[in-house]
From TrEMBL:
<comment type="pathway">
    <text>Ketone degradation; acetoin degradation.</text>
</comment>
<dbReference type="GO" id="GO:0004407">
    <property type="term" value="F:histone deacetylase activity"/>
</dbReference>
<keyword id="KW-0006">Acetoin catabolism</keyword>
<dbReference type="GO" id="GO:0040029">
    <property type="term" value="P:epigenetic regulation of gene expression"/>
</dbReference>
<dbReference type="GO" id="GO:0045150">
    <property type="term" value="P:acetoin catabolic process"/>
</dbReference>
<dbReference type="InterPro" id="IPR000286">
    <property type="entry name" value="HDACs"/>
</dbReference>
<dbReference type="Pfam" id="PF00850">
    <property type="entry name" value="Hist_deacetyl"/>
</dbReference>
<dbReference type="InterPro" id="IPR023696">
    <property type="entry name" value="Ureohydrolase_dom_sf"/>
</dbReference>
<dbReference type="InterPro" id="IPR003085">
    <property type="entry name" value="AcuC"/>
</dbReference>
<comment type="similarity">
    <text>Belongs to the histone deacetylase family.</text>
</comment>
<protein>
    <recommendedName>
        <fullName>Acetoin utilization protein AcuC</fullName>
    </recommendedName>
</protein>
<feature type="domain" description="Histone deacetylase">
    <location>
        <begin position="23"/>
        <end position="319"/>
    </location>
</feature>
<dbReference type="InterPro" id="IPR037138">
    <property type="entry name" value="His_deacetylse_dom_sf"/>
</dbReference>
<dbReference type="InterPro" id="IPR023801">
    <property type="entry name" value="His_deacetylse_dom"/>
</dbReference>
Length: 391
């Protein structure tokens, strides 16, 4: 155990956030991750904190009262399909399910539990892989997300602790709900690296989305090209995030760690390997210690290859938080493979890292890398101009 204590927020109640059996958003990935960590001996019982239920007042920090009431009605079958459509619920992406309000409030409560664990001083880092639902809007569900736990947690930090919050979103989909919630707030800096919206939901996240009014200069987007591979992703991510953090100098970092940029993911077009899911949190961990006395809350997010990708990615996220920036190497535990392989529709990986190329060679690699470097150049120019303005 390192000197910086870490908390892991977990409950099997997270499984109750379930749209239907064939829906791509499947919280079984949280249990798979938990089991992998336990089988690896990487998670002790005393590090596990059960999530609390978020109150309606806490959810109202971001969401409108009439929207929360609509979700509550939908939870007990009292919302018509016409009413639901006004609020983005009952759609193909976000279908209605029984007790959806309670299940959603539990995920929000998990993230607030993580925030309070860090702010109490008892823990330096806290991880809630059940959270990270970054597409939810103030009055509307979107993209599998009913309540936006990340945005609620940021508002909670602003109101209760008056901290400057850096939000780092590395999901393949743009972190739109969080960005728009704080688009005019100079005390919240949002950073999102994602596949360009040209081909992918939600279609936003351009470099020129920079904030509004007092928040201008505190929104940063790095849209990368479809079929981007590890090295290009990490070049854009690391160079831009280093400068954004130096510019903003946050008091705490909240990261959304979607695991859908992997080549195996069925919903995106990026071609990364497990390598990025080790390097992404390593940098956030280092920056949190450099600028925030270590204060870091890490969330889950997207990730739709729940068998081969998400458990390894999120387990390494925890390992980095818990082992002072270190990851596990070598074979996965035999116990975990024997338990889950009979249930898996695909062959499970045998090692923490991808041992061989997980996709066919990309013929446009040079062109894609150059396009991403142009995007990075534009972003760095914006960041450096903001630096001069502040100074």
């Amino acid at each position: 155990m390192n000197a910086h204590k870490s908390a892991f927020v977990f409950s099997e109640a997270f499984l109750s956030y379930k749209f239907r059996d064939d829906h791509p958003f499947n919280q079984k990935r949280v249990v798979l991750t938990y089991d992998l960590l336990k089988a690896s001996g990487a998670l002790d019982d005393e590090q596990i904190i059960p999530p609390r239920m978020a109150t309606d007042e806490e959810i109202k920090l971001i969401h409108k009262s009439n929207y929360i009431e609509a979700v509550q009605k939908a939870s007990v079958g009292l919302l018509s399909s016409e009413q639901g459509m006004q609020y983005g619920i009952g759609t193909q992406d976000t279908p209605i399910f029984e007790n959806m309000h309670e299940a959603s409030a539990q995920l929000v409560g998990g993230t607030l539990t993580a925030v309070d664990a860090v702010m109490s001083g008892d823990y330096t880092h806290a991880v809630n892989i059940g959270g990270g639902l970054h597409h939810g809007f103030k009055g509307k569900a979107s993209g599998f997300c009913i309540y936006n736990d990340a945005a609620i947690a940021i508002k909670y930090l602003r109101e209760h602790y008056n901290l400057k919050v850096l939000y780092v979103d590395t999901d393949a989909h743009h972190g739109d709900g969080v960005q728009w919630a704080f688009y005019d707030d100079p005390n919240v800096c949002t950073f999102s690296i994602h596949e360009t919206g040209r081909y992918l939901f939600p279609g936003t996240g351009n470099v020129n989305e920079r904030g509004h009014n007092e928040g201008f200069g505190y929104s940063f987007n790095l849209p990368i090209d479809a079929f981007t591979e590890d090295d290009s992703f990490l070049e854009v991510y690391s160079k831009s995030l280093e400068e954004v953090t130096e510019y903003f100098r946050p008091d705490i970092i909240i990261s959304q760690n979607g695991a859908d940029a992997h080549a195996y993911d069925p919903l995106t077009h990026l071609c990364c390997s497990m390598k990025i899911f080790e390097e992404i949190p390593k940098l956030v961990h280092r920056l949190a210690h450099k600028y925030c006395n270590g204060k870091w809350v890490a969330l889950g997010g997207g990730g739709y290859d729940i068998w081969r990708v998400v458990p390894r990615a999120w387990a390494q996220l925890w390992n980095i938080a818990n082992l002072d920036g270190q990851t596990l190497q070598g074979p996965l535990p035999k116990e975990w493979l024997e338990k889950w392989q009979p249930k898996s529709p695909v062959q499970l990986p045998t090692h923490w890292q991808d041992l061989s190329r997980v996709y066919k060679e990309i013929p446009r690699k040079k062109e894609i890398t150059e396009k991403n470097q142009l995007t990075l150049g534009k972003a760095l120019e914006i960041i450096r101009n903001e630096q001069k303005y502040i100074l």
